[in-house]
Amino acid sequence: MIRILVGNGKGGVGKSTIATTLAAALAARGRRTALADADRQRSSLAWLAARPAGHPAIRALDWSKRLDQVPPEIERLVVDAPANLDGDEIEDLLDMADKVVVPMQPSLFDQGGTERFLGKLARQKSVRKGRKEVVLLLNRLRPRTRAAARLEAYVRGLELPVVARIADRAVFEELASGGLSIFDVAGARHEAARAEWVDLVERLDTPR
Ligand SMILES: Nc1ncnc2c1ncn2[C@@H]1O[C@H](COP(=O)(O)OP(=O)(O)OP(=O)(O)O)[C@@H](O)[C@H]1O
Ligand SMILES: [Mg+2]
Do 34 and 76 meet the contact criterion of CB atoms below 8 Å apart? Predict the structure, then answer.
């Protein structure tokens, strides 16, 4: 099993959107996928509850049941982390994960919570020893804006790879309310949006 944590200490950067889209992408590749919601808001579980039949199945896992109870048949686990985790909780989640995706947004106000989270990550032994893969995802980008340029400059100063650049698109929210993602809708309509995820999904779906 590959355990993927989507986390950032900052709220509203797109953790639940990224976690649900990743789960749908992995399920669409035929992986037996579970989505665990560590967030009290239960956004990911609400998304799964709205998911219509006929789309690749994703197993719901409630974080309160802890992740040592992941069913043995599950091949890919995606965990949607809450923004404001206490020390122990975040250490547990980071400990558990094989790979960590940190969504970031082009706003100066995002950087405090993000920096604390990246600091906690950097202090993890498994990260220091290179055993845990940490990747950045730049979310809600609007091309040629100053905010996007500032975010690009900021991440150049971090020693972490940017593996996805996701544009700001209304389709995420439109589809999410019906339990769907861009990977559940056939046809060319969302091809450009899906193309932004290819490298990230490939990387997360590959055991180290
Ligand atoms: N790439 C995107 N384009 C457009 N809207 C987006 C994008 N990513 C996220 N959003 C929207 O931003 C809002 C916040 O996203 P989301 O709930 O995924 O963030 P979060 O990090 O899980 O928030 P919280 O910290 O509250 O759990 C939602 O309305 C979501 O639809
Ligand atoms: Mg959320």
Answer: yes
Ligand 1 centroid to residue 168 C-alpha, Å: 10
* Interval between CA 71 and ligand 1 midpoint (Å): 28
39 close to ligand 1 (CB < 6 Angstrom): yes
Cβ–Cβ contacts within 10 Å for residue 205, how many?
A: 18
Q: Report pTM.
A: 0.96
Ligand 1 contact via 46 beta carbon (within 6 Å): no
Q: Per-residue pLDDT tens for 126-173? A: 898 988 999 999 999 999 999 999 999 999 999 899 999 999 999 999
Is 3.40.50.300 the CATH classification of the domain at 2-204? yes
Q: Closest-lying ligand to the alpha carbon of 107?
A: 1
Work out which ligand 1 atom sits closest to the CA atom of 20.
18
Question: Count of alpha carbons within 13 Å of 161, Cβ hemisphere only?
Answer: 10
Does pLDDT of 16 surpass 60? Answer: yes
Tens-digit pLDDT profile for residues 40-61: 778 899 999 999 999 999 999 9
Residue nearest ligand 1's atom 16 by CA:
14
DSSP 113: H
128-167 core/surface letters (b: 16 or more CB in 10 A; e: else): eeeebbbbbbbbbbeeeeeebeebeebeeebebebbbbbb
| Amino acid residing at 86 | D
